[in-house]
Amino acid sequence: MDFFDRFAIPHPSPVIYASMVAIGLTVIAIIAGLTYFKKWGYLWREWLTTVDHKRIGIMYLISALLMLFRGGVDAIMLRAQLATPEAKLLDAQHYNEIFSTHGVVMILFMAMPFIMALMNFVVPLQIGARDVAFPRLNALSFWLFFMGAMLFNISFVIGGSPDAGWTSYFPLAGNEFSESVGTNYYMIAIQIAGIGTLMTGINFMTTILKMRTPGMTLMKMPMFTWSSLVANVIIVFAFPVLTVALALGTMDRLFGTHFFTTDAGGLDMLWANLFWVWGHPEVYILILPSFGIFSEIISTFAKRNLYGYKSMVWSMVVIAGYSFLVWAHHFFTMGQGALTNSIFSITTMAIAVPTGVKIFNWLFTLYKGKIEITTPMLYAIHFIPLFTIGGVTGVMLAMSAADYQYHNTMFLVAHFHNVIIPGVVYAMLAGLTYYWPKMFGFMLNERIGKWTVWLLSIGFLLAFMPMYITGLDGQARRMYTYSESTGYGPWNMASFIGAGIMAIGFALIVYNIYYSIRYASRDIGSDPWDARTLEWATHTPVPEYNFAISPQVASIEPFWDSKKKGQELFKGSYEKIHMPNNSGIPFIMGCIFFAWGFSFVFGIWVPLILTTIGIFVCMALRSFEIDHGHYISVDEIEETETKLRGAN
Amino acid sequence: MRELFPAKQVMGFVFSLILTIAALLVYYLDMSFTAGMTLLLITAFIQAGLQLIVFMHAGETKDKGSIYTNIYFGVFVALVTILGTLLCMIWGYI
Q1: How far off is chain A from B78, nearest CA to CA, in Å?
Q2: Which of the two ends of chain A, N or C, has the fewest CB atoms closer than 10 A to its terminal CB?
Q3: How far is CA A320 from CA A44, A234, A239, B87, in A?
Q4: Per-residue pLDDT band at A648 (split at 50, 70, 90)
């Protein structure tokens, strides 16, 4: 039995045992349901083995929504604990575990896959391609992300959650202070998901650079594709640093090396340094595609072309460069001198300039536009002022001298939620609503959608504005309780109520999906929003090959021009189309990676070695496999096209 | 026959051998730390460039532009990361 002791939770509570039972029951229910409805074959053929970018996008989307609720429940628990002074809902250890999980889940397993979802679904359609450059690698990326996320998520019921914060600073994250396997989970789960993300970066960079439809020069690409290109370039250059940092951290924890220890020549500060060399570009990986989504939405619903296309592109390129120059602003108080801090202060403040350019461009696009307030547009309109508040407080934090006051207080927490929620979460929800008809063939209900936006914004203001105040008054982040005499009580209660309102907003999204599945009209055509770019030029549902004939592009908004100026998009006749074959290897490799990660977390060496061999066997199989893909014949294309045209 | 002889590649190979020998001198000769590191850094960067351009054909397709942009950006990020880290952890640390 000694062997199994390691899987016990070091710090149990009834809630965790209840979660264990709930997880067990859910797994049984899923297996039973699949068996009862005879869906195993369908699941395997249509989803687990798929290499279609649209389906991979939808799988990313489902994972992201699930993780949104996982992270959201964590957030509610944190706010509930802080709602009143000296609360006893959670103890210090559980509070630590929950805020660490909340951060990792929301950034890496909610925001990232949400962006990957939209990128996967939209980018190939926007550039008129049939799929991404490396379809099978794309599937592998998804399964690595998914298995990494699952590995991280089981930590709280097997072996213990990570509890050193989402930044996992050493020496706290070292063996001396984090004795449970929690931080091993952190190191290895993020490593697996991170490798997947790195592959996506390479894949999409290649796709956008090499697979654009004839006539689409770089400066004729839609804004979301541009933002994705820049974000993927940042991924390719930033993620290797994370990979290295996590590998060094893993070695410190499992093999007794001294990279980040305080003795034997280690340098604990180096972890914080490396973490943020990746971490700050990561912020822009999240925000740039979000900006891209808003650009698409604002130009569609203002019925105008995007103001200042070139300055939009250049501001993103400049942001991509700057994003690698500012990381030390995350640890101004670590002990560097005034010169170092000043350098990083100035670079940080400089980033506000290109970001400001973008804000003004959106405002000028709206100016004199024929604005139509739909749900996605409402998100965009709420985003501009809310995000600007976050940006301004960011400039406050950027002043290194002043930062000594704000550092690690609730002020900081308010700031980054203030940029990430309106910036990233609103963009993703807006994108979800905007692209939903293209993905699923019906629209989400507008009335419920607008209620959601208002509830989220009101809840958001109520939840986070008080934190600016308590933060300036000195309430530290990550403290699990405070005394009544501090006077933080009422403000934190307001935050809790705000968090509750946001929770209702998120629940409404689920209700909206349910309601729209039941009642929404399926007769919406392929262009329900009267949009401007290529993804709306193909049918809904999008056929496997995206476009029967590759579109010919002559402007930034080819679809709009084809509708208004009669520009011809599809010239020529059908030809047979070459498509990649499905493959089970990415999924199997993902499963092996999961087992690899699990063995690594607990240091069970024999399975670790076996799974490592398994991974290499999968790669070798792929290398020696002869797979030329398949052709879709002209007859088949004609049949599909006639059928889809009939449906419109 | 002259067109068939891969003169550029052979020259590249010889040159990369010379660079390797130059780098090895650091081990065999008794140099100061600074001289050794300078020699290693210079030969390493020339070697990497040589490999990319001569043997990995970086400049031979019409993707030349994107390939070089990526390489320059990579060099920029690497230099910024290393110099910035030294600035934070050593030079600028009190």
Answers
A1: 9
A2: N
A3: 39, 7, 14, 21
A4: very low
* Inter-chain touch A328–B70, beta carbons under 8 Å: no
Q: Convert the pLDDT of each residue in A536-558 to its tens digit.
A: 999 888 998 999 888 999 888 88
For residue B87, list chain A residues with Cβ-Cβ distance below 8 A. Answer: 328, 336, 340, 343
| Choice between A523 and A32, residue whose per-residue pLDDT is larger | A32
Task: Please tell me whether residues B9 and B46 are part of one structural domain.
Answer: yes
| B48 and B74 together in one domain | no
Indicate whether B39 and B85 sit together in one domain. Answer: no
Q: Do A277 and B89 touch (CB under 8 A)?
A: no
d(CA A124, CA A537): 13
Cα separation, A586 vs A596, in Å, equals 15
pLDDT above 60 for A496: yes
Instruction: Evaluate whether A560 touches A303 at the Cβ level (below 8 Å).
Output: no
Q: Indicate whether B35 and B73 sit together in one domain.
A: no
Is residue B11 located within the same domain as residue B47? yes
Cβ atoms of residues A480 and A91 within 8 Å: yes
Burial A264-288 (b: 16+ CB within 10 A, else e): eebbbbbbbbbbbbbbbbbbbbbbb
**pLDDT for B3 beyond 80:** no
| B33 lies in the same domain as B49 | yes
Report the pLDDT averaged over residues A61-73.
94
Residues A120 and A56 sit within 8 Å (Cβ to Cβ): yes
Cα of B83 to nearest chain A Cα, Å? 11
- How far apart, in whole angstroms, are the C-alpha atoms of residue A505 and residue A448? 10
Neighbour-count burial for A481-496, b at 16+ CB within 10 Å, e otherwise: bbeeeeebbebbbbbb
Overall pTM > 0.95: no
Q: Structural domain of residue A263, as residue ranges?
A: 1-9+52-286
Q: How distant is the alpha carbon of residue A103 from its chain centre? A: 12
Confirm if A432 and A57 have CB atoms less than 8 A apart.
Answer: no
User: Which residues form the domain of B52?
Assistant: 1-56
Residue A58 placed within a domain:
yes
The pLDDT tens digits for A316-366 are: 999 999 999 999 999 999 888 889 999 999 999 999 999 999 999 999 999
Q: Summarize pLDDT for A497-508 with one digit per residue, the tens.
A: 999 999 999 999
* Cβ contact A210–B76 (<8 Å): no
Task: Assess if residue A376 is contained within a domain.
Answer: no
Separation between Cα atoms, residue A193 and residue A147, nearest integer Å = 7
Query: Mind listing the pLDDT tens digit for each residue in A11-32?
Result: 888 888 888 898 889 999 999 9
